[in-house]
Specification:
The complex is a heterodimer of chains A (113) and B (114). With 113 residues, chain A is mostly beta strands. Chain A has no helices and eleven strands. In chain A, the strands form two sheets. In chain A, strands 2, 4, 5, 6, 9, 10 and 11 form a seven-stranded mixed beta sheet that branches. In chain A, strands 1-3-8-7 form a four-stranded antiparallel beta sheet, with no helix packed on it. Chain A is globular and about 35 Å long. Chain B contains no helices and eleven strands. In chain B, 36% of the residues are buried. In chain B, the strands form two sheets. In chain B, strands 2, 4, 5, 9, 10 and 11 form a six-stranded mixed beta sheet that branches. Chain B has a five-stranded antiparallel beta sheet with strand order 1-3-8-7-6, with no helix packed on it. In chain B, 0% of the residues lie in helices and 58% in strands. The radius of gyration of chain B is 14 Å and the shape is globular. The chains are: A mainly beta (113), B mainly beta (114). At the A-B interface, strand 5, strand 9 and strand 10 of A face strand 4, strand 5, strand 9 and strand 10 of B.
Chain lengths: 113, 114
C-alpha cells in the first residue's frame, strides 16, 4: 500500500460528459502528480502541483483541469469527454518539489462509451 | 512524447535466469528511476540513480547509467515468477519554473516462467 488513495477505481461514462477524479496523497507529501496511461500513448505526464500551486505542466488537454486543495488532496476534472480519453489515470505524490521517489495510487480506470 | 525507450519491449525467461532491460533517453537528466507495474496496478518505485552515479545496487537489482550514451540498464538477478511485471524507466528533468517532470519510457514486459 503506497498510501496514495484514488477514487473512483472505475468509472464508465458517455461522450460529452464531465467527470472528476480524486486523489489523496501520502500523509505529509506536498507534491501531487497526475499521469494518464493508455495503450497507444503509454504513461503521459499531465500536471504537477506543489502545496496548492501548479508547478509543472505536461501533455494536459485544455478540456482537462486540476487543482490541489489546502488539505493537499487533488482533483482532476475531465470534460467534454471523447472515446480517446478512455485510460487509466494515476495520481502520485512525493515529499518534495523536486521529485525523488514517486508513490503511485492504484489508478482510476475511465471508460468513455 | 516518450523520453525513454525501453528495450526489449517484451522478455520471457525461466525462473532463476537473469533479466536485463535497457533504457535510452534524449535529454539531460537529474536522475533516472526504474518502476515496476503489475498488470493494471499502480507503479512501484524500484531504484533511483543520480546523474553523477554510474552503478547502483538494491537487493537483486543492479542499475547502470551512462550519461554519455544517454542510456541505462536494469538487471534483475535470479529472477522469480513474482518478478513478472512491466518495468519502466523514468527520467527526471528539472524545469525552469521550479517544478520537475518525470517522463516514463514505453516499458518492458517481463514474464518469468516456472
Amino acid at each position: 500500500d503506497s498510501g496514495v488513495t484514488q477514487t473512483p477505481k472505475h468509472l464508465i461514462t458517455a461522450t460529452g460528459q464531465r467527470v472528476t477524479l480524486r486523489c489523496s496523497p501520502r500523509s505529509g507529501d506536498l507534491s501531487v502528480y497526475w499521469y494518464q496511461q493508455s495503450l497507444d500513448q503509454g504513461l503521459q505526464f499531465l500536471i504537477q502541483y506543489y502545496n496548492g500551486e501548479e508547478r509543472a505542466k505536461g501533455n494536459i488537454l485544455e478540456r482537462f483541469s486540476a487543482q490541489q486543495f489546502p488539505d493537499l488532496h487533488s482533483e482532476l476534472n475531465l470534460s467534454s469527454l471523447e472515446l480517446g480519453d478512455s485510460a487509466l489515470y494515476f495520481c502520485a505524490s512525493s515529499a518534495s518539489l523536486n521529485t525523488g521517489e514517486l508513490f503511485f495510487g492504484e489508478g482510476s480506470r475511465l471508460t468513455v462509451l | 512524447s516518450q523520453q525513454g525507450e525501453e528495450d526489449p519491449q517484451a522478455l520471457s525467461i525461466q525462473e532463476g535466469e537473469n533479466a536485463t532491460m535497457n533504457c535510452s533517453y534524449k535529454t539531460s537528466i537529474n536522475n533516472l528511476q526504474w518502476y515496476r507495474q503489475n498488470s493494471g496496478r499502480g507503479l512501484v518505485h524500484l531504484i533511483l540513480i543520480r546523474s553523477n552515479e554510474r552503478e547502483k545496487h538494491s537487493g537483486r537489482l543492479r542499475v547502470t547509467l551512462d550519461t554519455s550514451k544517454k542510456s541505462s540498464s536494469l538487471l534483475i538477478t535470479a529472477s522469480r515468477a513474482a518478478d513478472t511485471a512491466s518495468y519502466f524507466c523514468a527520467t527526471d528533468r528539472r524545469l525552469t519554473g521550479g517544478g520537475n517532470k518525470l517522463t516514463f519510457g514505453t516499458g518492458t514486459q517481463l514474464k518469468v516462467e516456472l
